[in-house]
Design a protein that fits this description.
Structural class: mainly beta
Number of helices: 1
Oligomer: single chain
Strand content: 35-45%
Radius of gyration: 13 Å
Number of strands: 6
Distance between the termini: 30 Å
Order of helices and strands: HEEEEEE
Helix content: 10-25%
Number of domains: 1
Shape: globular
């Protein structure tokens, strides 16, 4: 629901973090009201966002200190 609302509002990028898979899904606005298919980043990857070009996010760092739910 929120993803569709943000796409309709023209939010250029949207990220969803899934702690159960330790992954990040990054959506980019394809056209007003529609995001392209997400780019999935795994725990060993680094996410980058167009809206924050000088910031890199090591996905694994998002889960530092969190219990391992993959066991």
């Amino acid at each position: 629901m929120k993803l569709d609302a943000y796409a309709r509002a023209g939010v250029p990028e949207y990220a969803i973090i899934d702690p159960s898979t330790r992954a990040l899904s990054h959506y980019r606005l394809e056209a007003l009201g529609r995001y392209a298919s997400p780019h999935a980043y795994g725990e060993a990857e680094v996410a980058r966002f167009d809206c924050l070009p000088t910031i890199s996010v090591p996905v694994g760092d998002l889960f530092a200190g969190a219990p391992d739910t993959t066991l």
